[in-house]
Structures are given as C-alpha cells and as structure tokens.
Design brief:
It is a single chain. It is built from 6 helices and 7 strands. By secondary structure, it is an alpha+beta fold. The strands form 2 sheets. Strands 2-4-5-7-6 form a 5-stranded mixed beta sheet. A two-stranded antiparallel sheet has the order 1-3. The structure holds adenosine-5'-diphosphate and magnesium ion. Adenosine-5'-diphosphate is lined by residues 178, 182-183, 186, 214, 216-219, 227, 232-235, 240-246, 268.
Length: 276
C-alpha cells in the first residue's frame, strides 16, 4: 500500500479497486488453503481408521493362519474314519444318514479353513507385470454365465493410459471376483441391475484405482466399518462365510494398496487402489 497517498487523503478509485482485488485474491487463496487443510485432515482421519483396522486384521490373520493349519489335521482324520465307517456293511439307514450329515458339516469346516488359508502369509506370491484391463476382462469372462443368469448388465470403461503394474494375478482376480459376487447378491430382486467398473490413475503417485459399483441395496451405514471383519456376513447361514472381503482386504494390503467401501445414491460401492 502506498502510505503517502493514504495519509495524504488522495487515494484514488483505481487504487482502491486494486486493493479490493488484492484483498479478494488473498481471501480466495486463504479459502483454498483452508479447503486443502480440511481435505488433508479428512485423509489423515481415514488413514488412522484404516491403520487401526489393518492392525486388527493383521493380528487376526496371523492367528487364523495357525489355527487353520491345526484344524485341518484332525478334520482329515475324522473324515477318513467316517469313510471307513460308511464302508461297514451292517449300518442302519439312520446311521448312514448321520454319517452323511457329519461329512457335509466337515466339508463346511474344510471350506472355511481353506478360505482362511488363502490369505495366510505362507502363500507364495507370484508377482508379474500385469495389465488391469486383462485381469478384469478375465474375471468378467469367467463370471459372465452367472451375471447373465442373474440379469446383471455390465458397464465397463478402462482408462486408456494405465501402466502395467506388479501384481499377483490370481489373487487380484480373486478380489475382483469377490466384489462382483457380493455386488450380484446385493442386486438380487432390484429392478435395475448394473455392475459398473472403471479404472483410473489414483491421486497418489504410482497407484492405479479400480472402482466397482452396483445398483444394489447399498451397505447399512452402521455395518460399513464391519464388512471387512472376518466372519461378518448378512447372508443366511450356508450362503456366506463372511470371509470374502476380509481376504480381499488382506490381498490388497499385501500389494501395498488399500480397499474401502462407500455408498453412492444408488447402491453399494467399492473402490480399490493398487500399488504400482
Ligand atoms: N456390494 C455390496 N452391497 C451391499 N452389501 C455388501 C456389498 N458387498 C459386501 N456387502 C456386505 O458385506 C458382507 C460381507 O461380505 P463378504 O466378506 O464378501 O462375506 P459374504 O459374502 O460371505 O457375506 C456381506 O454379507 C454384505 O452384508
Ligand atoms: Mg462375499
């Protein structure tokens, strides 16, 4: 500011305008800074929440990997003994039925245990340079009959310029399959059934993002922070193990990425961002 002009009372209109403009500029940039600060704060909060969540999951992961191994041994022995018992000639129908029920329940235990084993650290990773488009295409081709049967339409757009990224192809395919399978279930009974998939570069340097959304029921806000917990399921007994998203979370984390869910106006939505 020109002090002489102000004190001399000869401040002209043009100068006043300029001061006003400068002030407006300062105000605008302050507002922008405030917005950036708020966004950074929100991101920090999110990162904190995720850290708590991931530590919790890592601890459970270590425990379950050990337990899974310990469970499979006795289960195999019981399974073999039942098989022997079944081969005995003089069994009543009731006894045979009981054996068959036991075998079915054992199979359930084996399935859950195998699911748990999938994310165990013992699993050997096979990292290769992958094209996300190819991976998603493969999963969609694999899931096509099911999607068609359920009447789900797909709306897929790939970003034209994504780099190849180092991934364990099989495990990332499993994550996408899990998400698509959940989306399909969430859309059962809805009038519009659209599965939307997008890929794009993520905000953080060197990451890419896959966005998968559906026109399903959405996720109950109260359940949002539980869906990645092991055994959390809203499905009927026998329909879901509650392990799909738990395993997916661990796989993405193993890749140095993150996965989260939020609701949009028209249904459940899941994003994942994968490390390059
Ligand atoms: N796209 C989605 N829309 C609505 N709810 C979902 C969606 N994806 C996951 N969920 C919720 O998260 C729960 C956990 O999912 P998941 O770990 O895959 O286990 P499961 O499919 O065996 O129930 C589901 O039971 C469901 O309540
Ligand atoms: Mg599932």
């Amino acid at each position: 500011m020109d002090r002489d002009n102000v004190s001399g009372g000869s401040l002209d209109i043009d100068q006043l305008k300029k001061y006003a403009q400068d002030l407006a500029k300062v105000y605008k940039s302050e507002r922008q800074k405030r917005r950036e600060l708020e966004a950074a704060y929100q991101e920090l909060q999110q990162a904190k929440d995720m850290l708590v969540q991931s530590e919790k999951l890592a601890a459970v992961g270590r425990l379950t990997a050990g337990v899974a191994h310990e469970i499979l041994n006795p289960v195999n022995i019981i399974s073999m003994r039942l098989q022997l018992l079944k081969m005995t000639g003089d069994l009543s129908d009731r006894a045979r039925e009981a054996i068959s029920i036991c075998k079915n329940q054992l199979n359930r235990i084996i399935q859950i245990t195998k699911d748990l084993g999938q994310f165990s650290r013992i699993h050997e990773k096979q990292i290769t340079m992958c094209d996300l488009k190819e991976i998603i295409g493969h999963v969609l081709a694999f899931g096509a009959p099911q999607l068609k049967k359920e009447g789900v339409k797909t709306d897929v757009e790939y970003h034209p310029d994504l780099p190849l990224i180092p991934l364990d192809k099989n495990r990332i395919e499993q994550v996408i399959l899990n998400i698509i399978s959940n989306a399909t279930t969430a859309m059962a009974g809805q009038k519009t059934k659209v599965l939307r998939i997008r890929t794009k570069p993520a905000a953080s340097e060197g990451h890419v993002q896959i966005l998968i959304s559906d026109t399903g029921t959405g996720i109950d806000e109260g359940e949002m922070n539980r869906i990645f917990d092991p055994f959390f399921t809203t499905k009927e007994p026998g329909q879901g193990t509650g392990l799909g998203l738990f395993i997916s979370y661990n796989i993405i984390q193993d890749h140095g990425g993150r996965i989260w869910a939020e609701n949009n106006g028209w249904g459940g939505r899941l994003f994942s961002s994968i490390f390059r």
